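tokens incoming
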């Protein structure tokens, strides 16, 4: 007597469309093939600024895991950038580290020259490089103002300019890293929140300006994220940290992986109909 087994059909669509048909009890041999073909960013090239640690490092590693060739940019932390590259390569990905200060026009030109030399035309830019310093209004000085605005705003504009010149004819995705401070507006953050408010506005402007070139521009605005930077600044373990956990609907602060997964989504064709969006990734804190 013949026994009929229900067939399972998998439709996997990407650059190499694949349909796998297997019996209910005979799918294991196809799992590796399916996983391999699910890489959303295969044959894409991504530049991630400020990627030697923290959120930037997490985004670089996740983009690489999704199939992209990644340029890990750093300003001064060469050892950290090299470590990120080593981890990507060890996992079977492609990456190089390139030093450049995003607020320096010549450095940005060199960054994209090295990116295209190594991997070809760019498809994805993540504007992650940023600095912050909190302080009461009485403590603000011109040096702190220009340091934050030069990196967080001018640097974003120069990197975007470099990417637009080096995207291919199919367009691309620009992902700005803003901050939930523009919603929360905490005391003592006038300058930093000002820079991130500018990022929100620039995201909307450039989405309209660059749409004709098939370039999408979106922003991820993280809430408090546990990184080397937040540890060094003394946020972790502070009253500010405790308050963030208390007020977060999801009951915790973020991790770099939480932000990196959103970046992969925005970099991929899954978000093809999104541009000019500000995605507040804060665990619900508003």
């Amino acid at each position: 007597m013949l026994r009929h087994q229900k067939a399972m059909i998998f439709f996997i669509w990407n650059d190499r469309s694949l349909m796998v048909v297997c019996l209910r009890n005979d799918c294991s041999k196809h799992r590796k093939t399916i996983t391999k073909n699910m890489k959303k960013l295969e044959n894409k090239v991504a530049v991630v600024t400020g990627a030697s640690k923290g959120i930037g490092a997490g985004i670089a590693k996740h983009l690489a895991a999704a199939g992209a060739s990644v340029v890990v940019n750093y300003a001064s932390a060469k050892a950290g950038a090299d470590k990120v590259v080593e981890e990507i390569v060890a996992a079977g990905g492609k990456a190089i580290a390139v030093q450049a200060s995003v607020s320096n026009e010549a450095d940005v030109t060199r960054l994209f020259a090295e990116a295209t030399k190594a991997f070809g035309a760019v498809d994805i830019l993540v504007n992650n490089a940023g600095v912050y310093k909190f302080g009461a209004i009485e403590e603000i000085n011109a040096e702190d103002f220009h340091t934050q605005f030069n990196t967080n705003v001018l640097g974003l504009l120069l990197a975007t300019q470099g990417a637009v010149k080096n995207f291919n004819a199919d367009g691309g995705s620009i992902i700005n890293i803003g901050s939930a401070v523009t919603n929360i507006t905490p005391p003592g953050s006038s300058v930093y929140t000002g820079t991130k408010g500018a990022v929100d506005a620039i995201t909307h402007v450039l989405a309209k300006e660059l749409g004709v070139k098939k370039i999408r521009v979106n922003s991820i605005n993280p809430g408090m994220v546990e990184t080397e930077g937040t540890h060094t600044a003394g946020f972790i373990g502070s009253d500010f940290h405790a308050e963030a956990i208390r007020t977060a609907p999801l009951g915790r602060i973020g991790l770099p992986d939480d932000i990196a997964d959103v970046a992969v989504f925005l970099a991929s064709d899954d978000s093809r109909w999104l541009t000019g969006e500000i995605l507040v990734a804060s665990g619900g804190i508003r």
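note: Strands lie at 7-12, 18-23, 45-48, 69-74, 94-99, 124-127, 172-177, 215-222, 278-281.
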